[in-house]
Amino acid sequence: MDPLAQIATLVIQTVASIYLFFVVIRFLLQLARADFYNPISQAVVKATNPVLIPLRKIIPGLFGIDMAALVLAVIVGFVAIELNALAAAQTIINPARALFWAIIGVLKLATMIVFVGLIITIIVSWVAPYSSHPALTLLNQLMEPVRAPFARIIPPMGGLDLSPIFIFLTVQVIWILLDWAAMKVGLVGGLAQFVPGY
């Protein structure tokens, strides 16, 4: 790949990954019913509203799930994949294949957010358990729906909470399945660099 193509793919991938992160975070925050008035929530809303509000007129919610945000996340991934292919190889990827790649990228990013978010909440619970920083408050609200089902199945034993181990295990199982699905749809080797979130 020549330097101009590398620069183009770097810029496309960076911009798409940042915006995709905001869209996925917004979807997860709504799913978790997190505090809308938290300053970080407000920043995410401001970043995503210009595209999301018009899209909601076409794609309504379903059972309390913000389908417009999900569709927007897949669209961002899809457009980034095709732009990366154009920049790197002056061609486009089969749209059906690019759509599958985009969905896999969104799922991988969502599970990565859960994985990293859980690690942060565990560390903070040891070093600053009473912190009221808006970011940590929001992160705890985001992680609560993930932790709750596991905590019900695996209650703390002697003050030791083992449920995060099983959450990490579940996330890694999902990653294995996503990697298998990626291989089945041709997302292998260097092609992964075209997919935001993957």
Keywords for this structure?
198 residues; mainly alpha; CCB3/YggT; transmembrane helix; YggT family protein; membrane
Describe the structure.
This protein has 6 helices and no strands. Helix 3 crosses helix 4 (95-127). It has helices at 3-31, 39-56, 67-89, 95-127, 134-153, 163-184. The chain is globular, with a radius of gyration of 18 Å. By secondary structure, the protein is an all-alpha fold. The chain crosses the membrane at residues 7-29, 58-86, 98-128, 165-183. This is YggT family protein.
Summarize the structure.
This protein has about 200 residues and is an all-alpha fold. The protein is built from 6 helices and no strands.
Largest sheet: none
Topology as a string of helices (H) and strands (E): HHHHHH
Mean pLDDT: 90
Helix- and strand-based class?
Answer: mainly alpha
Beta-strand portion reads: under 5%
Counted beta strands: 0
Helix content: over 70%
Number of helices: 6
Oligomeric status: single chain
Give the terminus-to-terminus CA distance: 20 Å
Radius of gyration: 18 Å
Low-confidence stretches: none
The coarse overall form would be globular
Keywords: Membrane, Transmembrane, Transmembrane helix
Pfam families: CCB3_YggT
Family: Belongs to the YggT family.
Organism: Halioxenophilus aromaticivorans
Layout: helices, strands, pairs:
Elements: H1 3-31, H2 39-56, H3 67-89, H4 95-127, H5 134-153, H6 163-184
Helix pairs in contact: 1-2, 1-3, 1-4, 2-3, 3-4, 4-5, 4-6, 5-6
Family: Belongs to the YggT family.
Protein name: YggT family protein
Keywords: Membrane, Transmembrane, Transmembrane helix
